Amino acid sequence: MAAQPVEIELTLTPRARVDAIDVAGKVRAEHGDALAGFPRAAWCSFHTTAGYLDQGLAARLAASGGPGSFLRTVHGLFPADGDYRHDRLAERRELSDAQRRVEPRNADSHLAFIVSGMKSCALYRNRPAEPVFLLELDGMNGAAARTRRTRVVGYHREEEVERVTIDVPVSRHPIDSVNLADPRVGVLDAAERMRERHDVEKGVVSIALTGGERDAGVTVNEFETLLMRHDLREVLEDPLRFLARQGRRMLAEPRAIAAKSWGYAKYDAVQLLNEVIDALGLSESAVERLIARLMAVPAARALRLKRAVRLLVAGAEPAVVRGTYQSPILIQWQPARRRARTLEISLTRFR
Fold this sequence. Notes:
- The protein is α+β, with helices and mostly antiparallel strands.
- It has helices spanning 23-31, 55-63, 68-76, 97-102, 107-116, 187-198, 225-237, 239-245, 268-280, 284-296, and strands spanning 6-12, 19-22, 40-45, 50-51, 121-125, 133-136, 140-141, 144-145, 148-155, 158-169, 176-179, 203-209, 216-221, 308-314, 319-321, 327-332, 340-350.
- The termini are close together.
């Protein structure tokens, strides 16, 4: 009989604010070959500024020298000292005076996580000798290293046990975000009822846009009002202008770049894109196509927002697991025709 799925939780200490931590290596160091007999593994972070990449992208980065250049480029899109509303702690009504004294100013890291398509839970084919990196975007609070938790579940196969659809109301505004953890929305309640109905102890819940939904994405992050309603909204409305206002060395009218020839490569936005493409090992023609796409369409479409996210099912008392500040979030950058978006909620058991 095949071994039951194994669950391992780790505590990590970043070495710098932006860091790549080999979690697979730490598993081997602390738990030996505990994952060796399992062909698949789920890697899950419980933080809103630290996560995992798709395995295919991670492999391409490994082939080109590792995730360092990707991290630097993604984090470089959002300067740490920018004038973000999220970081105006005096405006954060949910914080006490004591919390304001220690709360990190980290809007840049939240935005980098969201637009880069990093995941809080990623499913990998298990290759025990290879590294699996947790990418950390906010590992320090001042001079103090933050403590991170991550969990890995080794398993043999996946079995989908139920799938339902749910309509989520959205506003009439073109750019909107909805906290899918809000009990009034009902997404997480529906997921937990599914888990209880099928008595799933180890697995994942997937929250995905249906095929007909356009101009929208989902992420897992902190649903903080100023971050979602101001900073993220400005990024989606006009990322180039947002970066210019945050101090990037760009034109006073960034949209004028679209009318330039290949000479616009001297501008920061294009240089940053080139760094990403170089890190992924793509060709110059791919760079040109990507830049043309960025300049030709609303920039929100060029961001790496996902159409699906996963939440882990695990624990000694099984439940749908998420970190203290983690919420699944629906984001749109064009209005929905029905004033609602349709999501598929599916439950998968690990065997």
